Amino acid sequence: MNVLVVGGDGRAHALTWRLARSESVETVAAAPGNPGIAAMGADCVPVDPTDPGDVAQVADDLDVDLVVVSPEEPLVNGVVDAVQGRGRPAFGPTADGARLEGSKAWMKEVVADAGVPTARHAAFSVDDEDAALAFLEELPGFYVVKTDGLAAGKGVVVTESIDDARDAVHRYLSGEAFGDAGRRLVIEEGLTGPELSLLVVCNGREGWPLAPAQDFKRIGDGDTGPNTGGMGAYSPVPFVGPDVVDEVMKTAVRPTLTTLAARGIAYRGVLYAGIMLTPEGPKLLEYNVRFGDPEAQVVLPRLAGDFGQLCYDAATGSDIAPRFADDAAVTVVLATEGYPTSSRPGDVIQGIEAAEALPGVTVFHAATARRDGQLVTAGGRVLAVTALAPSLADARARAYEAAGRITWPGVQYRRDIAEAATAAAVDS
Ligand SMILES: Nc1ncnc2c1ncn2[C@@H]1O[C@H](COP(=O)(O)OP(=O)(O)OP(=O)(O)O)[C@@H](O)[C@H]1O
Ligand SMILES: [Mg+2]
After folding, report:
1. Which residues surround ligand 2, an ion (CB under 5 A)?
2. I need a labelling partner for 251 at 20 to 30 A (CA). Which of 1, 58, 352, 417 fits?
3. Contact between residue 91 and residue 199 where contact means Cβ atoms under 8 Å apart
Protein backbone atom coordinates (compact mmCIF):
# COMPACT_ATOMS: atom_id res chain seq x y z
CA MET A 1 0.00 0.00 0.00
CA ASN A 2 0.92 3.66 -0.31
CA VAL A 3 1.02 5.72 2.86
CA LEU A 4 1.04 9.45 3.63
CA VAL A 5 2.63 10.63 6.90
CA VAL A 6 1.34 14.00 8.11
CA GLY A 7 3.98 16.12 9.85
CA GLY A 8 7.60 17.15 9.64
CA ASP A 9 8.87 16.54 13.17
CA GLY A 10 11.33 13.93 14.48
CA ARG A 11 8.45 11.57 15.16
CA ALA A 12 7.25 11.93 11.55
CA HIS A 13 10.74 10.91 10.41
CA ALA A 14 10.64 7.88 12.74
CA LEU A 15 7.16 6.93 11.47
CA THR A 16 8.25 7.26 7.83
CA TRP A 17 11.41 5.27 8.53
CA ARG A 18 9.48 2.45 10.23
CA LEU A 19 6.71 2.43 7.60
CA ALA A 20 9.31 2.17 4.84
CA ARG A 21 10.57 -0.98 6.59
CA SER A 22 7.14 -2.64 6.42
CA GLU A 23 6.46 -5.40 3.92
CA SER A 24 2.96 -4.14 3.18
CA VAL A 25 4.19 -0.63 2.33
CA GLU A 26 5.24 0.21 -1.22
CA THR A 27 5.71 3.98 -0.96
CA VAL A 28 5.67 6.54 1.83
CA ALA A 29 5.17 10.26 1.24
CA ALA A 30 5.15 13.00 3.86
CA ALA A 31 3.25 16.27 4.25
CA PRO A 32 5.29 18.39 4.57
CA GLY A 33 8.12 16.07 5.67
CA ASN A 34 11.63 17.35 6.35
CA PRO A 35 15.16 17.02 4.93
CA GLY A 36 15.76 13.74 6.79
CA ILE A 37 12.59 12.24 5.33
CA ALA A 38 13.50 13.54 1.86
CA ALA A 39 16.94 11.94 2.19
CA MET A 40 15.17 8.57 2.58
CA GLY A 41 13.77 9.08 -0.91
CA ALA A 42 10.24 9.80 0.33
CA ASP A 43 8.15 12.32 -1.56
CA CYS A 44 7.75 15.50 0.58
CA VAL A 45 4.67 17.56 -0.31
CA PRO A 46 4.82 21.19 0.85
CA VAL A 47 1.49 21.67 2.61
CA ASP A 48 0.29 23.03 5.96
CA PRO A 49 -0.19 19.81 7.97
CA THR A 50 -2.69 21.51 10.30
CA ASP A 51 -5.14 22.31 7.48
CA PRO A 52 -7.63 19.41 7.18
CA GLY A 53 -8.83 20.28 3.67
CA ASP A 54 -5.32 20.65 2.27
CA VAL A 55 -4.10 17.39 3.81
CA ALA A 56 -7.16 15.47 2.56
CA GLN A 57 -6.50 16.89 -0.91
CA VAL A 58 -2.87 15.66 -0.86
CA ALA A 59 -4.10 12.20 0.21
CA ASP A 60 -6.50 12.24 -2.76
CA ASP A 61 -3.88 13.51 -5.19
CA LEU A 62 -1.45 10.75 -4.18
CA ASP A 63 -4.34 8.26 -3.93
CA VAL A 64 -2.84 6.79 -0.74
CA ASP A 65 -4.31 3.78 1.03
CA LEU A 66 -3.59 5.09 4.53
CA VAL A 67 -2.80 8.39 6.26
CA VAL A 68 -0.74 8.33 9.49
CA VAL A 69 -0.70 11.56 11.52
CA SER A 70 2.35 12.49 13.59
CA PRO A 71 1.66 15.68 15.64
CA GLU A 72 -1.34 16.67 17.76
CA GLU A 73 -2.38 19.91 16.07
CA PRO A 74 -3.62 18.31 12.83
CA LEU A 75 -5.59 15.79 14.90
CA VAL A 76 -7.18 18.47 17.10
CA ASN A 77 -8.04 20.44 13.93
CA GLY A 78 -9.82 17.46 12.35
CA VAL A 79 -7.38 16.16 9.74
CA VAL A 80 -8.56 12.58 10.34
CA ASP A 81 -12.21 13.65 9.99
CA ALA A 82 -11.40 15.26 6.63
CA VAL A 83 -9.41 12.27 5.31
CA GLN A 84 -12.03 9.74 6.47
CA GLY A 85 -14.75 11.95 5.03
CA ARG A 86 -13.26 11.24 1.61
CA GLY A 87 -13.32 7.51 2.23
CA ARG A 88 -9.69 6.95 3.17
CA PRO A 89 -8.48 5.19 6.34
CA ALA A 90 -6.47 7.37 8.73
CA PHE A 91 -4.45 6.33 11.76
CA GLY A 92 -5.29 8.83 14.50
CA PRO A 93 -8.37 9.99 16.41
CA THR A 94 -11.04 12.24 14.97
CA ALA A 95 -11.27 15.77 16.42
CA ASP A 96 -13.76 14.73 19.13
CA GLY A 97 -11.30 12.18 20.58
CA ALA A 98 -8.29 14.44 20.02
CA ARG A 99 -9.85 16.86 22.51
CA LEU A 100 -8.31 14.63 25.20
CA GLU A 101 -5.09 16.44 24.35
CA GLY A 102 -6.57 19.66 22.98
CA SER A 103 -8.26 20.53 26.26
CA LYS A 104 -6.78 19.40 29.56
CA ALA A 105 -9.94 20.55 31.36
CA TRP A 106 -12.09 18.28 29.16
CA MET A 107 -9.62 15.43 29.58
CA LYS A 108 -9.98 15.75 33.38
CA GLU A 109 -13.77 15.68 32.98
CA VAL A 110 -13.62 12.46 30.96
CA VAL A 111 -11.24 10.71 33.32
CA ALA A 112 -13.31 11.78 36.33
CA ASP A 113 -16.33 10.17 34.61
CA ALA A 114 -14.26 7.06 33.94
CA GLY A 115 -13.03 6.88 37.55
CA VAL A 116 -9.36 7.04 36.55
CA PRO A 117 -6.94 7.87 39.39
CA THR A 118 -5.49 11.33 38.72
CA ALA A 119 -4.20 14.38 40.63
CA ARG A 120 -6.69 16.55 42.52
CA HIS A 121 -7.49 19.48 40.23
CA ALA A 122 -9.79 22.28 39.14
CA ALA A 123 -10.18 24.26 35.89
CA PHE A 124 -10.44 28.04 35.65
CA SER A 125 -11.20 30.60 32.92
CA VAL A 126 -10.24 34.23 32.34
CA ASP A 127 -12.82 35.57 34.81
CA ASP A 128 -11.88 33.13 37.59
CA GLU A 129 -8.43 34.43 38.54
CA ASP A 130 -9.43 35.02 42.18
CA ALA A 131 -10.91 31.53 42.46
CA ALA A 132 -7.76 30.08 40.87
CA LEU A 133 -5.54 31.84 43.40
CA ALA A 134 -7.79 30.64 46.23
CA PHE A 135 -7.55 27.04 44.97
CA LEU A 136 -3.74 27.28 45.09
CA GLU A 137 -4.03 28.04 48.83
CA GLU A 138 -5.84 24.72 49.33
CA LEU A 139 -2.98 22.65 47.90
CA PRO A 140 -0.30 21.28 50.21
CA GLY A 141 2.80 23.12 48.97
CA PHE A 142 3.36 21.49 45.57
CA TYR A 143 1.63 23.16 42.63
CA VAL A 144 1.08 22.37 38.99
CA VAL A 145 -0.40 24.92 36.57
CA LYS A 146 -1.24 23.81 33.02
CA THR A 147 -2.62 25.61 29.98
CA ASP A 148 -5.90 24.06 28.89
CA GLY A 149 -4.87 24.20 25.23
CA LEU A 150 -1.85 23.02 23.24
CA ALA A 151 1.50 24.59 24.17
CA ALA A 152 4.12 22.36 22.50
CA GLY A 153 5.02 20.65 25.77
CA LYS A 154 5.94 23.94 27.45
CA GLY A 155 2.65 24.98 29.06
CA VAL A 156 3.16 23.27 32.42
CA VAL A 157 4.69 24.82 35.54
CA VAL A 158 5.56 22.45 38.39
CA THR A 159 6.69 24.32 41.49
CA GLU A 160 6.88 24.36 45.28
CA SER A 161 6.71 28.14 45.23
CA ILE A 162 3.19 29.49 45.52
CA ASP A 163 4.46 32.82 44.18
CA ASP A 164 5.66 31.13 40.98
CA ALA A 165 2.34 29.30 40.72
CA ARG A 166 0.42 32.58 41.19
CA ASP A 167 2.60 34.22 38.58
CA ALA A 168 1.88 31.40 36.10
CA VAL A 169 -1.87 31.71 36.76
CA HIS A 170 -1.69 35.40 35.96
CA ARG A 171 0.48 35.04 32.85
CA TYR A 172 -1.69 32.21 31.49
CA LEU A 173 -5.11 33.75 32.14
CA SER A 174 -4.06 37.14 30.79
CA GLY A 175 -3.01 35.47 27.53
CA GLU A 176 0.48 36.89 27.97
CA ALA A 177 2.23 33.51 28.07
CA PHE A 178 0.42 31.24 25.58
CA GLY A 179 -2.33 33.33 24.00
CA ASP A 180 -5.73 31.63 23.88
CA ALA A 181 -4.26 28.24 24.91
CA GLY A 182 -3.72 29.66 28.42
CA ARG A 183 -6.89 31.73 28.89
CA ARG A 184 -8.29 28.59 30.42
CA LEU A 185 -6.08 26.56 32.74
CA VAL A 186 -5.98 23.56 35.04
CA ILE A 187 -4.41 23.66 38.49
CA GLU A 188 -3.43 20.36 40.09
CA GLU A 189 -1.76 19.10 43.21
CA GLY A 190 1.84 18.04 42.60
CA LEU A 191 2.49 14.30 42.65
CA THR A 192 5.81 12.50 43.02
CA GLY A 193 7.25 9.29 41.67
CA PRO A 194 8.86 7.88 38.54
CA GLU A 195 7.11 8.70 35.28
CA LEU A 196 6.09 6.35 32.56
CA SER A 197 4.71 6.88 29.06
CA LEU A 198 2.47 4.07 27.90
CA LEU A 199 1.49 4.24 24.24
CA VAL A 200 -1.63 2.26 23.43
CA VAL A 201 -2.78 1.50 19.88
CA CYS A 202 -6.58 1.65 19.63
CA ASN A 203 -8.94 0.37 16.92
CA GLY A 204 -12.13 2.20 17.84
CA ARG A 205 -13.13 -0.29 20.54
CA GLU A 206 -10.07 -1.68 22.29
CA GLY A 207 -6.45 -0.82 22.96
CA TRP A 208 -3.16 -2.76 22.85
CA PRO A 209 -0.14 -1.40 24.75
CA LEU A 210 3.19 -0.87 23.03
CA ALA A 211 6.48 -1.34 24.89
CA PRO A 212 6.84 1.13 27.79
CA ALA A 213 9.21 4.08 27.33
CA GLN A 214 10.45 6.86 29.56
CA ASP A 215 11.04 10.39 28.33
CA PHE A 216 12.97 13.31 29.81
CA LYS A 217 10.96 16.52 29.90
CA ARG A 218 13.37 18.95 31.58
CA ILE A 219 16.14 20.72 29.72
CA GLY A 220 18.89 20.01 32.27
CA ASP A 221 20.71 16.95 33.63
CA GLY A 222 19.19 15.56 36.81
CA ASP A 223 15.73 16.84 35.73
CA THR A 224 16.53 20.50 36.29
CA GLY A 225 15.36 23.63 34.48
CA PRO A 226 12.19 24.25 32.49
CA ASN A 227 10.07 21.67 30.67
CA THR A 228 10.73 21.04 26.98
CA GLY A 229 9.09 19.07 24.19
CA GLY A 230 11.29 16.15 25.35
CA MET A 231 15.09 15.79 25.48
CA GLY A 232 15.48 12.03 25.18
CA ALA A 233 13.87 8.66 25.79
CA TYR A 234 14.59 4.98 26.19
CA SER A 235 12.80 1.65 26.02
CA PRO A 236 12.34 -0.86 27.64
CA VAL A 237 11.96 0.59 31.15
CA PRO A 238 13.50 -1.78 33.72
CA PHE A 239 11.20 -0.72 36.59
CA VAL A 240 8.02 -1.26 34.55
CA GLY A 241 6.97 -4.89 34.39
CA PRO A 242 3.89 -6.38 32.71
CA ASP A 243 1.99 -5.98 35.99
CA VAL A 244 2.33 -2.17 35.85
CA VAL A 245 1.24 -2.13 32.20
CA ASP A 246 -1.79 -4.30 33.08
CA GLU A 247 -2.72 -2.01 35.94
CA VAL A 248 -2.56 1.12 33.76
CA MET A 249 -4.66 -0.60 31.09
CA LYS A 250 -7.20 -1.68 33.71
CA THR A 251 -7.43 1.49 35.80
CA ALA A 252 -6.93 4.14 33.12
CA VAL A 253 -6.99 3.18 29.45
CA ARG A 254 -9.93 0.74 29.27
CA PRO A 255 -12.28 2.84 31.45
CA THR A 256 -11.38 5.89 29.33
CA LEU A 257 -12.15 4.08 26.05
CA THR A 258 -15.47 2.91 27.52
CA THR A 259 -16.36 6.43 28.65
CA LEU A 260 -15.45 7.85 25.25
CA ALA A 261 -17.58 5.19 23.54
CA ALA A 262 -20.51 6.14 25.79
CA ARG A 263 -20.06 9.70 24.51
CA GLY A 264 -20.17 8.40 20.95
CA ILE A 265 -16.41 8.59 20.34
CA ALA A 266 -14.78 5.54 18.73
CA TYR A 267 -11.11 6.23 19.50
CA ARG A 268 -8.58 5.13 16.86
CA GLY A 269 -4.84 5.65 16.71
CA VAL A 270 -2.46 6.07 19.63
CA LEU A 271 -3.68 6.94 23.09
CA TYR A 272 -0.64 8.00 25.05
CA ALA A 273 -1.05 7.76 28.82
CA GLY A 274 1.37 9.89 30.85
CA ILE A 275 1.55 8.13 34.20
CA MET A 276 3.19 8.87 37.53
CA LEU A 277 3.93 5.83 39.67
CA THR A 278 3.03 7.40 43.02
CA PRO A 279 3.25 5.66 46.41
CA GLU A 280 -0.56 5.21 46.15
CA GLY A 281 -0.30 3.52 42.76
CA PRO A 282 -0.24 4.73 39.15
CA LYS A 283 -1.97 8.06 38.53
CA LEU A 284 -2.77 9.61 35.17
CA LEU A 285 -0.95 12.90 34.50
CA GLU A 286 -2.23 13.42 30.99
CA TYR A 287 -3.36 11.92 27.75
CA ASN A 288 -1.79 12.69 24.40
CA VAL A 289 -3.50 11.55 21.22
CA ARG A 290 -0.46 10.55 19.15
CA PHE A 291 2.90 8.85 19.53
CA GLY A 292 5.26 10.65 21.89
CA ASP A 293 8.13 12.63 20.43
CA PRO A 294 10.82 11.37 21.23
CA GLU A 295 9.18 8.16 22.56
CA ALA A 296 8.30 7.11 18.99
CA GLN A 297 12.01 7.23 18.17
CA VAL A 298 12.70 4.41 20.70
CA VAL A 299 9.44 2.44 20.53
CA LEU A 300 9.16 2.13 16.72
CA PRO A 301 12.67 0.72 16.13
CA ARG A 302 11.91 -2.02 18.68
CA LEU A 303 8.54 -2.92 17.17
CA ALA A 304 8.62 -6.28 15.36
CA GLY A 305 6.45 -7.22 12.40
CA ASP A 306 4.69 -5.10 9.81
CA PHE A 307 4.05 -1.62 11.22
CA GLY A 308 2.17 -0.43 8.13
CA GLN A 309 -0.27 -3.32 8.45
CA LEU A 310 -0.68 -2.64 12.18
CA CYS A 311 -1.63 1.00 11.48
CA TYR A 312 -4.00 -0.02 8.68
CA ASP A 313 -5.68 -2.68 10.83
CA ALA A 314 -6.17 -0.31 13.78
CA ALA A 315 -7.43 2.46 11.48
CA THR A 316 -10.00 0.13 9.93
CA GLY A 317 -11.20 -1.45 13.19
CA SER A 318 -9.43 -4.83 13.12
CA ASP A 319 -7.74 -6.38 16.13
CA ILE A 320 -3.95 -6.16 16.30
CA ALA A 321 -1.12 -7.88 18.20
CA PRO A 322 1.95 -5.63 18.63
CA ARG A 323 5.17 -7.55 19.26
CA PHE A 324 8.53 -6.23 20.41
CA ALA A 325 12.07 -7.39 19.83
CA ASP A 326 14.14 -8.24 22.88
CA ASP A 327 16.51 -5.31 22.37
CA ALA A 328 16.82 -1.75 23.67
CA ALA A 329 16.73 1.74 22.20
CA VAL A 330 17.98 5.10 23.48
CA THR A 331 17.44 8.46 21.82
CA VAL A 332 19.24 11.70 22.69
CA VAL A 333 17.75 14.98 21.45
CA LEU A 334 20.20 17.59 20.19
CA ALA A 335 18.86 21.13 20.65
CA THR A 336 20.07 24.62 19.80
CA GLU A 337 21.53 27.06 22.24
CA GLY A 338 18.78 28.86 24.15
CA TYR A 339 16.15 26.10 23.85
CA PRO A 340 13.44 25.96 25.28
CA THR A 341 13.29 29.75 25.73
CA SER A 342 14.48 30.50 22.23
CA SER A 343 16.09 28.71 19.32
CA ARG A 344 18.87 29.65 16.95
CA PRO A 345 18.21 28.82 13.30
CA GLY A 346 20.69 28.71 10.44
CA ASP A 347 23.70 27.02 12.06
CA VAL A 348 25.42 24.46 9.82
CA ILE A 349 25.08 20.88 11.14
CA GLN A 350 28.01 18.54 10.68
CA GLY A 351 28.71 14.88 11.42
CA ILE A 352 25.40 13.11 10.76
CA GLU A 353 27.01 10.66 8.33
CA ALA A 354 29.75 9.82 10.82
CA ALA A 355 27.10 9.28 13.52
CA GLU A 356 25.05 6.98 11.30
CA ALA A 357 28.17 4.98 10.40
CA LEU A 358 27.94 3.49 13.91
CA PRO A 359 26.02 0.20 13.98
CA GLY A 360 22.36 0.53 15.01
CA VAL A 361 22.36 4.34 14.88
CA THR A 362 19.72 6.40 13.07
CA VAL A 363 19.57 10.19 13.21
CA PHE A 364 15.99 11.45 12.98
CA HIS A 365 15.54 15.03 11.83
CA ALA A 366 13.22 17.17 13.96
CA ALA A 367 13.96 20.73 12.84
CA THR A 368 16.47 20.98 10.02
CA ALA A 369 16.50 22.82 6.70
CA ARG A 370 18.60 22.80 3.52
CA ARG A 371 20.26 26.10 2.70
CA ASP A 372 22.70 26.48 -0.18
CA GLY A 373 23.26 22.76 -0.20
CA GLN A 374 24.03 22.63 3.51
CA LEU A 375 21.98 21.20 6.35
CA VAL A 376 21.18 23.85 8.98
CA THR A 377 19.27 24.11 12.25
CA ALA A 378 15.64 25.25 11.90
CA GLY A 379 14.09 25.12 15.38
CA GLY A 380 14.78 24.26 19.03
CA ARG A 381 14.91 20.46 18.98
CA VAL A 382 16.97 19.71 15.88
CA LEU A 383 17.86 16.00 15.81
CA ALA A 384 16.99 12.82 17.71
CA VAL A 385 19.99 10.49 17.72
CA THR A 386 18.73 6.95 18.22
CA ALA A 387 20.67 3.76 18.85
CA LEU A 388 19.27 0.23 18.85
CA ALA A 389 21.41 -2.41 20.58
CA PRO A 390 21.07 -5.71 22.47
CA SER A 391 21.10 -3.99 25.90
CA LEU A 392 20.17 -0.61 27.34
CA ALA A 393 23.80 0.02 28.34
CA ASP A 394 25.02 -0.66 24.78
CA ALA A 395 22.27 1.46 23.25
CA ARG A 396 23.10 4.33 25.60
CA ALA A 397 26.83 4.18 24.91
CA ARG A 398 26.19 4.01 21.16
CA ALA A 399 23.70 6.91 21.20
CA TYR A 400 26.15 9.16 23.06
CA GLU A 401 29.04 8.17 20.84
CA ALA A 402 26.90 9.12 17.84
CA ALA A 403 25.73 12.38 19.44
CA GLY A 404 29.35 13.30 20.08
CA ARG A 405 30.08 13.09 16.35
CA ILE A 406 27.49 15.75 15.49
CA THR A 407 28.32 19.42 15.90
CA TRP A 408 27.08 22.94 15.31
CA PRO A 409 27.76 26.13 17.28
CA GLY A 410 25.91 25.99 20.61
CA VAL A 411 24.55 22.42 20.30
CA GLN A 412 23.22 21.23 23.67
CA TYR A 413 21.96 17.90 24.94
CA ARG A 414 21.41 16.07 28.21
CA ARG A 415 24.17 13.69 29.31
CA ASP A 416 21.98 11.56 31.57
CA ILE A 417 19.42 10.00 29.24
CA ALA A 418 18.81 6.39 30.41
CA GLU A 419 21.65 6.71 32.94
CA ALA A 420 19.70 5.66 36.04
CA ALA A 421 17.87 2.92 34.11
CA THR A 422 21.17 1.53 32.82
CA ALA A 423 22.56 1.41 36.35
CA ALA A 424 19.36 -0.27 37.55
CA ALA A 425 19.49 -2.84 34.74
CA VAL A 426 23.11 -3.72 35.64
CA ASP A 427 22.23 -4.08 39.35
CA SER A 428 19.30 -6.40 38.76
N1 LIG B 1 0.26 16.62 38.92
C2 LIG B 1 1.56 16.63 38.63
N3 LIG B 1 2.50 16.47 39.60
C4 LIG B 1 3.83 16.50 39.33
N5 LIG B 1 4.33 16.69 38.10
C6 LIG B 1 3.45 16.87 37.09
C7 LIG B 1 2.04 16.84 37.29
N8 LIG B 1 1.44 17.04 36.10
C9 LIG B 1 2.42 17.18 35.20
N10 LIG B 1 3.64 17.08 35.78
C11 LIG B 1 4.95 17.16 35.11
O12 LIG B 1 4.88 18.03 34.01
C13 LIG B 1 5.11 17.31 32.80
C14 LIG B 1 4.22 17.85 31.72
O15 LIG B 1 2.86 17.71 32.11
P16 LIG B 1 1.79 17.22 31.04
O17 LIG B 1 2.23 15.91 30.57
O18 LIG B 1 0.44 17.33 31.61
O19 LIG B 1 1.98 18.39 29.95
P20 LIG B 1 2.18 18.41 28.39
O21 LIG B 1 2.65 19.78 28.11
O22 LIG B 1 0.92 17.98 27.75
O23 LIG B 1 3.32 17.36 28.10
P24 LIG B 1 3.65 16.56 26.75
O25 LIG B 1 4.51 17.44 25.95
O26 LIG B 1 4.37 15.32 27.27
O27 LIG B 1 2.36 16.23 26.11
C28 LIG B 1 4.85 15.85 33.15
O29 LIG B 1 5.56 14.98 32.31
C30 LIG B 1 5.34 15.81 34.58
O31 LIG B 1 6.76 15.71 34.62
MG1 LIG C 1 0.46 16.49 26.55
Report:
1. 286, 288
2. 417
3. no
Domains of the chain and any CATH numbers: 2-93 (3.40.50.20), 140-189 (3.30.1490.20), 195-427 (3.30.470.20)
Contact 265, 97 (CB under 8 A): yes
**What whole-number distance in Å separates Cα of residue 372 and Cα of residue 379?**
18
Among all bound ligands, the one having the nearest atom to the CA of 155 is 1
Closest Cα to atom 23 of ligand 1 = 153
Both ends of the chain: CA-CA distance in Å?
A: 44
Per residue in 219-268, pLDDT (tens digit) is 999 999 988 999 999 999 998 899 999 999 999 999 999 999 999 999 99
Number of H helices, E strands in the chain: 16, 24
Residue 229 and residue 218 in contact, taking contact as beta carbons nearer than 8 Å: no
Map 201-229 to HEC letters: EEECCCEEECCCEEECCEEECCCEEEECC
Pocket test for ligand 1, best of 72, 135, 156 (most atoms within 8 A of CB): 156
For 39-60, write each residue's pLDDT tens digit.
Answer: 999 999 999 999 999 999 999 9
Which of 73, 108, 144 for a ligand 1 pocket mutation test, highest count of atoms within 8 Å of Cβ? Answer: 144
Q: Which ligand is nearest to the CA of 186?
A: 1
